[in-house]
Automatic annotation (TrEMBL):
<keyword id="KW-0238">DNA-binding</keyword>
<dbReference type="Pfam" id="PF00392">
    <property type="entry name" value="GntR"/>
</dbReference>
<dbReference type="GO" id="GO:0003677">
    <property type="term" value="F:DNA binding"/>
</dbReference>
<dbReference type="InterPro" id="IPR000524">
    <property type="entry name" value="Tscrpt_reg_HTH_GntR"/>
</dbReference>
<protein>
    <submittedName>
        <fullName>GntR family transcriptional regulator</fullName>
    </submittedName>
</protein>
<dbReference type="InterPro" id="IPR028082">
    <property type="entry name" value="Peripla_BP_I"/>
</dbReference>
<dbReference type="InterPro" id="IPR036388">
    <property type="entry name" value="WH-like_DNA-bd_sf"/>
</dbReference>
<keyword id="KW-0805">Transcription regulation</keyword>
<feature type="domain" description="HTH gntR-type">
    <location>
        <begin position="73"/>
        <end position="123"/>
    </location>
</feature>
<dbReference type="GO" id="GO:0003700">
    <property type="term" value="F:DNA-binding transcription factor activity"/>
</dbReference>
<keyword id="KW-0804">Transcription</keyword>
<dbReference type="InterPro" id="IPR036390">
    <property type="entry name" value="WH_DNA-bd_sf"/>
</dbReference>
Length: 420
């Protein structure tokens, strides 16, 4: 069957580098429950030991706003608790995930919903999760904000105005809530200290102001939505390649394979300047058309600069008219789907997206929170622009954002369909 005969909305190829895992460890990943999913394995013959798991699903448009898997799991568990079929304790997360046929991250998200709604006690490390089975035993839903920031006397006028706006908007969105302020010191809170602060104060979400050195691990481990106000990513940073082969070799192999499937116009947006030579070298050695020229970097999600984003992807999708996009790391994939959704740009139904990522560890789980570029001159212009992003986060239901590090149990399906 030729590539052109597929009715494709989009596709995702996870490239697996050589590693100590056996092939049986590479599990099928389904992008979208309920759609007509076709899974096939492709090989990359010019890189021995490499393989790729490709996923393509049929051209069925599914709504953006629909209940996520964690919400559905939470509703099912809530019903079972209310009807008395689950009492005292929940089983472990892995056992519960296997019982319900969902991923562990989905169960973790469902537990967070039920803690917020007062059906479960706050999980403690190494202990079972207790069910609040009686209505009178249930606490009121968590609604407070934990704000981690520098000491107030060290804040600039702009930062002070920004924090005041954050507190005001949180209280407007959650009328009976409080803002618990944690001022950063030389010694960051430990995971247990942070978990205790969240439990005692019935915290619903966390706002972390500026780059929080030493806080990355703790913020990754808490099971709450975290908003990074100034757009700081979480360490560690990625090098050009952690695979023992160069990015140029990987791209050349993928270009050759896509060319064999009938693709002649393959777009590879440039994520970082140090990848430019590798990308151009791979294209120069291939038979496919070069999609980009110039010095422009791909805009990341969400809206750093909407006019620049529109110009970038409109040029990419209309002028170059690619049939495939090779995304060097997942942020480019999020830029393509997330940004186009926000800006209302149409993604061609025939377009296939390929993302290259580490096999053992999925980095860049969620789109970053980025401080927007502001054209105005006054402090109020800057504050209003950043508060606009925070308002969107509140209205979207505090969707977890920022870089995360997750194991291979990460549910790709939930991630992709959430941004679609």
């Amino acid at each position: 069957m030729s590539f052109e005969s597929w009715r494709v909305l989009d596709g995702c190829v996870c490239v697996a580098p050589p590693c100590h895992h056996t092939r049986s460890d590479v599990r099928p990943i389904f992008l979208c429950a309920g759609s007509n999913v076709s899974v096939f394995i492709i090989g990359l013959p010019d890189l021995p030991g490499w393989g790729a798991l490709a996923l393509v699903f049929s051209n069925c448009i599914m709504p953006i706003k629909r209940q996520s898997t964690p919400r559905l799991v939470a509703d099912q568990l809530k019903s079972e608790i209310e009807h008395g079929s689950r009492t005292t304790f929940l089983p472990g997360q892995q056992k519960l995930a296997k019982e319900l046929g969902v991923s562990v991250p989905s169960v973790r998200g469902a537990i967070r919903f039920l803690v917020d709604e007062g059906y479960l006690e706050v999980p403690k490390k190494g202990q079972k999760i207790r069910i609040r089975s009686n209505q009178g035993d249930r606490i009121s839903p968590a609604s407070n904000l934990l704000l981690i920031s520098p000491k107030r006397e060290r804040l600039s006028e702009l930062s002070f105005e920004l924090l005041a706006g954050i507190e005001e908007r949180w209280r407007e969105h959650f009328p009976k809530s409080n803002v618990i302020s944690v001022q950063r010191t030389e010694r960051p809170m430990s995971h247990d200290e942070l978990a205790q602060e969240i439990s005692v104060n019935h915290v619903r979400g966390v706002v972390a102001f500026e780059a929080l050195e030493g806080w990355s691990e703790q913020l990754n481990q808490i099971d709450l939505p975290v908003y990074r106000l100034a757009g700081a990513p979480i360490a560690p940073k990625l090098g050009e390649s952690g695979w023992g082969v160069s990015i140029e070799q990987v791209i050349s192999s993928i270009l050759g394979h896509l060319h064999g499937l009938g693709h002649r116009r393959i777009l590879t947006p440039i994520l970082r300047p140090n990848l430019r030579e590798s990308i151009l070298g791979a294209y120069a050695a291939s038979a496919v058309g070069v999609a980009f020229d110039g010095e422009e970097m791909v805009p990341l999600f969400p809206l750093d600069d909407e006019p620049r984003f529109r110009a970038f992807w409109e040029r990419a999708l209309t002028r170059f008219q690619p049939t495939a996009v090779v995304c060097i790391y997942t942020p480019v994939l999020f830029s393509l789907y997330g940004f186009c959704q926000v800006a209302g740009l149409r993604i061609p139904s025939h377009l296939s997206a390929v993302t290259i990522e580490h096999h053992q560890l999925v980095r860049f789980l969620m789109p970053r929170i980025a401080a927007p570029i502001v054209r105005g001159e006054g402090i109020r212009d800057v504050v209003n622009a950043r508060l606009k992003l925070f308002d969107k986060w509140l209205k979207d239901g505090l969707q977890p954002q920022g870089y995360k590090l997750m194991g291979r149990e990460f549910d790709w399906g939930e991630s992709i369909r959430d941004i679609r």
